[in-house]
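pasting for the record
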Amino acid sequence: MKAIIYVEGKTSPPFENVPGGTECIESNLLQSLPAAVYEELELIDVLEFDENEDILLVALQKLRHGGLIRITGTDALQ
């Protein structure tokens, strides 16, 4: 199971070209999800824009053992 995590109002929700079985989740809902559910997580602009300082720790708790995490962000200089 894969999830794309984004920040509502700061990041455009990535609903285009999302493969089947991939969930798009707002970062403020991440804490309410059960632990060790996802095999792959992609965080889009979450480290830059989410107000929760522990968001990376929260995201890692949702990842299964041996899972993959991809962190992307916008270049602030562009």
